[in-house]
UniProtKB/TrEMBL annotation:
PANTHER family: GLYCEROL-3-PHOSPHATE DEHYDROGENASE, GLYCEROL-3-PHOSPHATE DEHYDROGENASE [NAD(+)] 2, CHLOROPLASTIC. GO terms for biological process: carbohydrate metabolic process; glycerol-3-phosphate catabolic process; phospholipid biosynthetic process. It comes from Sphingobacterium alimentarium. Substrate binds at residues 114, 263-264. This is Glycerol-3-phosphate dehydrogenase. Keywords: Lipid biosynthesis, Lipid metabolism, NAD, Oxidoreductase, Phospholipid biosynthesis, Phospholipid metabolism. GO terms for molecular function: glycerol-3-phosphate dehydrogenase (NADP+) activity; NAD binding. The keyword Lipid metabolism applies. It catalyses: sn-glycerol 3-phosphate + NADP(+) = dihydroxyacetone phosphate + NADPH + H(+).
Length: 336
């Protein structure tokens, strides 16, 4: 079967969201070839034997040929025209460490990463443009609201595809559409990325409040203040005509703040109950992007001299070890 090179899609990452990506791509009816970078050879061996990821979304059947799954990211890059990056933001540099700008040349790069690159304090799109000389028009970002667990259950979900070149966003989106995946097209790449970073911090705040014993009434006020704080941040960093109430911003914030599947809410809840950061990370055994995002976004807030009380509260609790109840009570007096 001849497949045009533009229909060759590679996925970098093997966690729950990456596994959900594999499911979405294989359930879509468009003609394509899919390649998958799975970091551990033992996981690849397990997939070969049982047809499932042994660590994440274990009920999802892997339906791509085993010869297309490799622990070598360069193999996936060499065989793909569209590359979907789907690792935690903190691990992206390590995943790409053996690749050069030449490997990215003439490829469409899709970031499904909802985080910020530590050390550089850059969203993924900015980091890729600077490090690998990728044209902005060749970078697409995927936003929610969408949790991997609901994708695995084939519950109706929505993905937002953002790109400066909306025709490229449409091209990639069509590979994801199915009876349970609807897609939305946007040209607000920066807004989608920053929204994804901030909503994780706000979900952490909500989780901390819940762990401390604050109720749903407080949570509603917290999240309504959070969407206004997000809009204030974006208007200062990247002003545009975006509608902050759109699914990629408010919708993604709501699902991350309230869903039982939200890692960031779960992480925050543990902090509110008295767990240390380290003990919460060990018990979860999954990455809560909001923790890293909180440390990174703080430098951006300081650089632009922004007033971000919710972000500041989370940072004080996580990084300066200030008592959670003290900080939440201070925040409560500032909200309206």
């Amino acid at each position: 079967m001849d497949i045009n090179i533009s229909n060759r899609i590679g996925v970098i990452g093997s966690g729950s969201w990456a596994t959900a990506m594999i499911k979405m791509l294989t359930d879509n009816q468009s003609e394509k070839e899919i390649y998958w970078w799975v970091r551990k050879q033992e996981d690849i061996d397990y997939i070969a034997s049982f047809g499932h990821n042994p660590s994440y979304l274990t009920a999802v059947e892997v339906k791509i040929p085993m010869e297309n799954i490799s622990p070598d990211p360069k193999y996936v890059f060499d065989n793909s025209a569209i590359i979907v990056l789907n690792t935690p933001a903190a691990y992206l540099k390590d995943a790409l460490k053996d690749l050069t700008a030449e490997d990215f040349k003439e490829k469409i790069i899709v970031s499904a990463i909802k985080g910020i690159i530590p050390d550089e304090n850059q969203i993924v799109g900015e980091y890729l443009c600077e490090r690998y000389q990728i044209a902005e028009d060749n970078i697409i970002v995927i936003g929610g609201p969408c949790h991997a667990e609901e994708v695995s259950q084939e519950k109706l979900s929505y993905l937002t595809f953002g790109c400066n070149d909306v025709e490229k966003a449409k091209l990639v989106a069509r590979f994801y559409e199915s009876r349970y995946i609807n897609t939305i097209i946007s040209d607000d790449t920066l807004g989608i990325e920053y929204g994804a970073v901030l909503k994780n911090i706000y979900a952490l705040a909500g989780g901390i409040g819940h762990g401390l014993g604050f109720g749903d009434n407080f949570q509603a006020v917290l999240i309504s203040n959070a969407i206004r704080e997000m809009e204030y941040f974006m208007d200062n960093i990247n002003p545009s005509g975006r509608d902050i109430n759109a699914s990629a911003y408010l919708g993604d914030l709501l699902v991350t703040a309230y869903s039982q599947f939200s890692r960031n809410r779960t992480f925050g809840n543990m902090i509110g109950k008295g767990y240390s950061v380290k003990s919460a990370q060990l018990e979860m055994n999954m990455v809560a992007e909001g923790y890293y995002a909180s440390g990174c976004i703080q430098s951006i807030i300081a650089r632009h001299q922004l007033d971000m009380p919710i972000c500041n509260m989370v940072y004080e609790i996580l990084y300066n070890k200030s008592p959670a109840m003290k900080e939440m009570n201070i925040l409560a007096q500032k909200m309206n």
